[in-house]
Q: What sequence folds into this?
């Protein structure tokens, strides 16, 4: 059942999030199955929205359900979400339909990844091993967030369970690839960050003012393909928002 | 039906109630920093719902119109004048072609709003007219900009005003627990609720930093917490354990822990608090928080407070020709 006590909020379950939203949380650490559970639970909610629900969105291991408090009482919606949560094991839920896989050229190290050595060392690798590992297989788009269209990619292997830095990097550029806690974030815009920048892509995940401003969706995949600095500069200069990336449909 | 901006302060932009529904794409709702001010404007203008307005952070500018317009002024109280004659706040006014409406700086609060009776009718971007700086949607207004205004139904019955409860000087703010409140030790939460904060000079449409004397508010999970949803009003602790109240243009997901959420009813009090204003927090249960009126119900309540504006002394160009009641000075600035 949903937890109603305001202080008992640090576990898996249904939690209040302001007076007009509930958060269904599947885990506190980044396990692939928790992300899959969140995507599956959200898919089921979208297919059959509960009364009063006005928005369903997923983060890394949680689902936000925003509701109209004039249409449904929070406690009633929390109860029905709690029942749904217990009705099955969501960890093997189906991924969203019409998923895509993007293969995205990326430069690593040097000016485009000033903290590659540092991050690799934290993960117990040398720089070349780290790049190979990051590019070895497609990464899941675990969530879109922080900034419009911006993907959280992963999960990386356990070696990459490295913390954020205590100090903020004042600014990384648009397209920066930063790592921490088994994830890669591909920055949509220049931003300060507490994560370590290991590389950069010319691919733009947010294209405001176009018909499809948000290119990626949670459940898609991104495979990073390492390219030499010269080739990367050419992609960056070309102005192509895809940055040399290619896209295929996943079954 | 066009307003022309001849001069604009650095934080002037079009804002409405924002673009809800894009959290899954990483786009925060955005919209007015003080949503209550748009509800007050809707009540004063007799509009069916909140309209797009010109939001003015700190100071406004100089505005003219090409047709007679009924406008209203809500939110932070700003020095305002029509052709040089001082105007009160929380009221409607008529602006005729050739007249100059000058607004700002703020005398109380931070965000003032100018709303035409038919709303600002500039183009919709993803369902809203709001500029959202951090998302790269729209932009701040500059000298020379023109703003189309919307049409409206009904007769123009003359100027109205309303008395507004003070929210422009800080004070006590109600919060509720969120999904991460439990990450803080009970004694840290108790100390947070017992601390007198001051609104830091560091504040914008993304968040408001709070200053206090004493130790920071850290959790053990500060640097390896899984990023999760943020909503406006969340009180986020930075890596150094300093609190920020996140505002309209906050990120949608973040990894720094949130100790609680400021309730929407009291978020305007945080947004409007001027630098240095005192702020304290009081925790409500989720049940108490949900019992507070929604924006729709708040608007219905506000409509009942609207009354005709009669003889506001500050509207009179030649005060000497009127008999003023002894001791009565201003009327509606708070």
A:
């Amino acid at each position: 059942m949903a937890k109603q006590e305001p202080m008992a909020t640090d576990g898996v379950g249904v939690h209040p999030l302001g007076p007009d939203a509930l958060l269904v949380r599947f885990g506190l650490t980044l396990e692939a199955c928790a992300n899959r559970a969140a995507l599956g639970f959200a898919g089921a909610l979208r297919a059959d929205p509960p009364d009063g629900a006005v928005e369903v969105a997923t983060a890394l291991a949680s689902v936000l359900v925003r509701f109209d408090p004039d249409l449904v009482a929070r406690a009633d919606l929390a109860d029905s979400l709690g029942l749904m949560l217990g009705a099955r094991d969501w960890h093997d839920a189906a991924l969203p339909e019409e998923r895509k896989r993007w293969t995205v050229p990326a430069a690593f190290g040097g000016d485009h990844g000033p903290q590659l050595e540092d991050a690799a060392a934290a993960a117990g690798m040398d720089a070349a091993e780290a790049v190979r590992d990051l590019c070895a297989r497609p990464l899941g788009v675990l969530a879109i967030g922080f900034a419009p269209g911006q993907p959280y990619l992963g999960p990386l292997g356990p070696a990459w369970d490295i913390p954020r830095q205590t100090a903020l990097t004042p600014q990384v550029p648009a397209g920066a690839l930063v790592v921490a806690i088994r994830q890669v974030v591909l920055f949509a815009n220049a931003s300060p960050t507490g994560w370590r920048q290991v590389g950069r892509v010319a691919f733009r995940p947010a294209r405001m003012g176009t018909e499809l401003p948000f290119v990626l969706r949670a459940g898609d995949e991104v495979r990073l393909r390492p390219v030499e600095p010269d080739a990367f500069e050419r992609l960056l200069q070309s102005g192509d928002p895809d940055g040399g990336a290619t896209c295929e449909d996943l079954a | 039906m066009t307003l022309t901006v001849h001069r604009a302060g650095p934080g002037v932009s079009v804002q409405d109630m924002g673009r809800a529904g894009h959290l899954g794409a990483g786009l925060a709702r955005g919209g007015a920093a003080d949503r209550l001010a748009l509800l007050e404007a809707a009540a004063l203008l007799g509009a069916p719902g909140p309209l797009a307005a010109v939001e003015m952070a700190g100071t406004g500018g100089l505005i003219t119109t090409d047709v007679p317009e009924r406008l209203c002024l809500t939110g932070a109280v700003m020095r305002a004048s029509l052709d040089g004659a001082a105007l009160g706040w929380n009221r409607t006014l008529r602006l005729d072609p050739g007249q100059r409406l000058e607004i700002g700086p703020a005398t109380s609060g931070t965000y003032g709003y100018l709303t035409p009776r038919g709303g600002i009718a500039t183009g919709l971007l993803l369902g809203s007219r709001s500029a959202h700086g951090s998302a790269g949607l729209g932009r701040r207004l500059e000298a020379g900009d023109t703003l189309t205004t919307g049409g409206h139904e009904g007769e123009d019955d003359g100027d109205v005003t309303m008395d507004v409860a003070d929210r422009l000087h800080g004070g006590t703010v109600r919060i509720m627990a969120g999904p991460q409140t439990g990450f803080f030790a009970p004694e840290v939460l108790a100390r947070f609720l017992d601390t007198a904060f001051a609104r830091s000079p560091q504040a914008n449409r993304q968040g408001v930093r709070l200053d206090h004397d004493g130790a920071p508010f850290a959790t053990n999970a500060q640097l390896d917490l899984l990023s999760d949803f943020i909503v406006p009003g969340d009180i986020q602790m930075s890596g150094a354990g300093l609190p920020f109240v996140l505002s309209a243009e906050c990120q949608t997901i973040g990894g720094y822990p949130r100790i609680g959420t400021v309730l929407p009813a009291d978020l305007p009090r945080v947004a409007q608090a001027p630098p240095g204003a005192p702020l304290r927090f009081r925790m409500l249960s989720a049940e108490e928080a949900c019992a507070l009126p929604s924006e729709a119900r708040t608007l219905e309540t506000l409509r009942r407070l609207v009354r005709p504006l009669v003889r506001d002394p500050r509207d009179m160009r030649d005060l000497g020709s009127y008999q003023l009641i002894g001791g009565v000075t201003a009327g509606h600035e708070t």
Observations:
- Chain A is about 20% helix and 30% strand.
- The first strand of chain A starts at residue 13 and ends at 16.
- Residues 32-47 of chain A form the longest helix (16 residues).
- Helices of chain A lie at 32-47, 74-86, 116-122, 127-135, 229-238.
